[in-house]
Amino acid sequence: MSTHAGYRSTADCPAVIPVFPLPGALLLPRGQMPLNIFEPRYLAMVDDCLRTDRVIGMIQPDPEGGGGSPMNPKLYRVGCLGRLTQFAETGDGRYLISLTGIGRFRVESELATASAYRRCQVSYDDFAVDFEARAGEEQVDREGVLKALRDFVDSNDLKVDWAGIEEAPNEALVNALCMMSPFGVREKQAMLEAADLKTRAEILIAVTQMELVRGSGPEPTLQ
């Protein structure tokens, strides 16, 4: 089973892509990300995307990376390629789009460009596993993930669709929870860069447990 029609391996993905830097936005393979586009440069990016191969690279700015500028901050080296699979135009000039995750990439260089948005030369070679749907599902600690979710839901008095969660395969469950999680940029980046699904689930559990500890009282002092 491929990640998306037409993108069955790293070789199918373009080496030069437009990138959309957005803090806290985590896209993972086969995940769905809705976006509200209103900045002129990103409206132009979507216009160009629709005229070409309909792919956009989601990537986070690196707040500790140094360099860059407020308009063009330094980027993390790893992001995720998404294909534009839904599009709607609003009456006030915004675009409502949805991206479907294809596979992760590593930025090799940022290109000089006349366009208002940024473009990067990227490689997918380190993330061939992304093109194999549900790879490593059997190694995921599903009960640990569900326990962390229950504890977080109870602590924050949230309501969730438990029937849908129970029916979700491990890959869809872990990736959806990571993408929807309220955690910070560094935590989201760690989830993105996880070597495999098992490791991503472990990071999700650990970050959730740390958040619950912080919410229940003073943070423990490390010796």
From TrEMBL:
<dbReference type="InterPro" id="IPR046336">
    <property type="entry name" value="Lon_prtase_N_sf"/>
</dbReference>
<dbReference type="Pfam" id="PF02190">
    <property type="entry name" value="LON_substr_bdg"/>
</dbReference>
<keyword id="KW-0378">Hydrolase</keyword>
<protein>
    <submittedName>
        <fullName>Lon protease 2</fullName>
        <ecNumber>3.4.21.53</ecNumber>
    </submittedName>
</protein>
<dbReference type="InterPro" id="IPR003111">
    <property type="entry name" value="Lon_prtase_N"/>
</dbReference>
<dbReference type="GO" id="GO:0006508">
    <property type="term" value="P:proteolysis"/>
</dbReference>
<dbReference type="InterPro" id="IPR015947">
    <property type="entry name" value="PUA-like_sf"/>
</dbReference>
<feature type="domain" description="Lon N-terminal">
    <location>
        <begin position="17"/>
        <end position="212"/>
    </location>
</feature>
<keyword id="KW-0645">Protease</keyword>
<dbReference type="GO" id="GO:0004252">
    <property type="term" value="F:serine-type endopeptidase activity"/>
</dbReference>
